[in-house]
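User: I'm new to structure prediction. If I give you an amino acid sequence, what do you actually give back? Let's try with this one:
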Amino acid sequence: MNNEETLKQIEELQQRCEQYENISLKLNWDMLRQPSEDSGVQWLVTYEEDQLVGFIGLYGIGSELEICGMVRPGYRRRGIFTGLWQQAQDMLAKRPSRSVLLNAPETSASAAGFLKKLPVSFHHAEYQMKWDRAAAAEQANGAVPAAAGDVILRPARTDETALLIALDMDGFEMNETDAAEMYNQQSGTPEEHVLIEWSGQPAGKMRLYTEDGETWIYGFVVDKRLRGQGIGRSSLLQTIERERQHGNGISLEVALHNPNALKLYESCGFVIQNRQNYYSYNG
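Assistant: Good question. You get back a string of structure tokens that encode the predicted 3D arrangement of the chain. For your 283 residues, that looks like this:
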């Protein structure tokens, strides 16, 4: 079985699990679809009678290792995920310098049951948000003015890598090593790196990843020195309009401890769909 066939089976399993529990799993498909030697991702799967019944993915993101998994409904309580987790311990042992985060949908009863068995502590949470036409129309009555100067979005050039890394360091409190590693992982993906300019000067960045008619906004940041000018709002509205013209939905993620960003997204018409919780593994 080749890699493409396995990915299709993982996608089908994800859809089945999400429908069963009415949840949204974060499997980082932009990373999964990269060639394995470039992605920073490893995964383990379990089959029964030629059917994929279990999956666990380990995603190297900077200095952190994120883990997410799932088991097909009807095959649970058979120790399938416990077996996958035990195999994953060997992988974790080879990456002792990385902090380990397990992510799970807040409303997943199966995830909550498994996490109770592990030495974990709550780390942080993120909202998954989706742009909604009705919400945007409601917000438009009290819209915040766009930036006073010209806000232009354009593809980032290859000679602007250092600038993109610096913006990630500034906006997400990352060290240079982690920011550079994350950028190198992204460089092999179909993601679009976008540079934001304001009145002719670099002012921020974002990444766009589109699949199955849905565009995800990642790594969105405005230079701290230029915030409060309406640059972020103008950038979002331009991106929303472009993706709408292409017939795509628009989604993003925001940390709960970033209320200013949450307020900005809501003002542009994004509404909360799901919440993902992250737990530090202390094993």
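You can read the tokens as a compact description of the fold. Here is one thing that stands out. The chain has two domains: 3-118, 129-275.
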